[in-house]
Design brief:
about 425 residues, mainly alpha, two-stranded antiparallel sheet, J domain-containing protein, coiled coil, Chaperone_stress_response
């Protein structure tokens, strides 16, 4: 029976109930054949297959005998169709839910990505601002330090000059021995004023330096905090990416496992279906044979004897057929074994030939080549040798007589035959 006849619901194909009459079947077929004809559906790639299935449905249901046979399996077909439709519906709902979940997940990831980028840009901006302020603060601190250094150098210079004026060396080396020009009151006041002014300036600059250093340290702390937050944010992003990859891998693994289980289940169902069909066919055949046997037993004795003869003849023919099949199978198996052995031998010879070819440049082939009996293939000219060949003792290369002479670089020299009755044979030649 064709696959369409086994799996298709012909009543659903013709859009009629199971108890429809022949007239209803014909009427529905005429209407549907006009609507589903491939010529009227040129853009539908399945129009031809659908129309052919419609024809099979009409041919099956319009014939009473075929319809009765089909009705026996229609219930199981209907059940399978119902289960298949429910399964397809569940799969469609699951696919829809999966698409919705994927869309929601994608929207959530996009939103999180936008928030992450916004936070990262804000932190990078803060970091840049802090670094700019740190650079400016460092410049101010360098200027203040340079100013304080200059003020301190001037104080040190004044102290050095004061000590030099009051030293004994200045006293003895003065133009007027032991006498120096006295410092005026204005000079003392001016020197004191400058010293006080420098002290005041140093005090102010030192306070400014302390404040700027505190501000600089604060800015560095804020900058480091921003850098830490950026690192944490990036690490969070990386962790999210790794988690997403793990989820995707787990989902793919589950999908593959579900697919494998579904395929295994489908294979089990297919095998069970095939086994059930085979058993049903075997049971049908057994019933037919029992019916025929009962009919034969009801006939007259002569007809029974003839039937027994025919049965014996059929059995003998079957046994002969089995014997022939067994011989054929044995022949096929033998040929397969011989082919495998020949292929293995050929492969070994080819491998040996490759090995010989790789070592041929190292072997001079000038030793005595012993003769080996059996069928071989020449490694040089690839010609088959049915009875014997020659084998190089140096590299184990197999060659015919002509190739052996060529490989050894020798010339053929005739010598007197030891056996005058036999004539020229292999021993009649000396290969130098």
């Amino acid at each position: 029976m064709a696959p369409c006849e086994v799996t298709e619901d012909y009543y659903a194909t013709l859009e009629i109930p199971q108890n429809a009459t022949v007239e209803a079947i014909k009427k529905s077929y005429r209407q549907l054949s006009l609507a589903r004809h491939p010529d009227r559906n040129p853009h539908n790639p399945e129009a031809t297959s659908l129309f052919q299935c419609l024809q099979r449905a009409y041919e099956t249901l319009s014939d009473p005998a075929e319809r009765r046979t089909y009705d026996l399996v229609w219930v199981s077909i209907r059940k399978r169709k119902t289960v298949q439709e429910e399964s397809e519906k569940r799969q469609a709902e699951a696919s829809k839910n999966e698409r919705n979940r994927a869309a929601e997940e994608r929207a959530r990831r996009l939103k999180e990505e936008a928030v992450w980028w916004e936070q990262l840009v804000q932190l990078e901006k803060q970091k840049s601002e802090y670094e700019s302020k740190i650079f400016e603060g460092s410049r101010v601190i360098r200027n203040l330090s340079a100013t304080l250094k200059r003020l301190q150098e001037r104080d040190d210079e004044d102290l050095r000059k004061e000590a030099e004026r009051n030293s004994w060396w200045t006293f003895f080396t003065s133009p007027i021995y032991g006498k120096q020009a006295p410092e005026t009151e204005d000079q003392r006041r001016q020197r004191a004023f400058h010293r006080i002014e420098r002290l005041h300036t140093k005090s102010i600059k030192e306070k400014e330096l302390i404040q700027e250093e505190a501000n600089l340290n604060n800015l560095k702390d804020r900058r480091d905090d921003a850098v830490t937050k950026i690192a944490v944010l990036k690490q969070k992003k990386e962790n999210a990416r790794l988690a997403e990859e793990a989820r995707v891998q787990e989902r793919v693994r589950k999908e593959q496992e579900a697919k494998r289980q579904a395929e295994a289940k489908a294979e089990r169902e297919r095998q069970a279906k095939w086994r059930a069909e085979w058993e049903a066919e075997a049971a049908r055949r057994r019933k037919e044979e029992e019916a025929k046997r009962a009919a034969r037993q009801a006939k007259e004795a002569q007809e029974a004897q003839e039937a027994q003869k025919r049965a014996r003849a059929a059995q003998e023919a079957e046994e002969a057929q089995k014997a022939r099949l067994a011989q054929v199978f044995e022949k096929i198996a033998r040929e397969a074994r011989e082919g495998a052995q020949a292929a293995k031998k050929k492969e070994a010879q080819e491998a040996s030939s490759r090995t010989f070819a790789s070592t041929q440049s190292l072997c001079r082939h000038n030793a005595f080549w012993p003769k080996i009996e059996g069928g071989f293939t020449c490694s040089n000219c690839r010609s088959p040798q049915r009875h014997f060949a020659f084998k190089c003792p140096g590299c184990a290369m197999i060659a015919c007589a002509s190739c052996r002479q060529t490989l050894r670089g020798e010339r053929r020299r005739k010598r007197p035959s030891k056996n005058v009755n036999v004539g020229l044979q292999y021993e009649d030649y000396d290969y130098l």
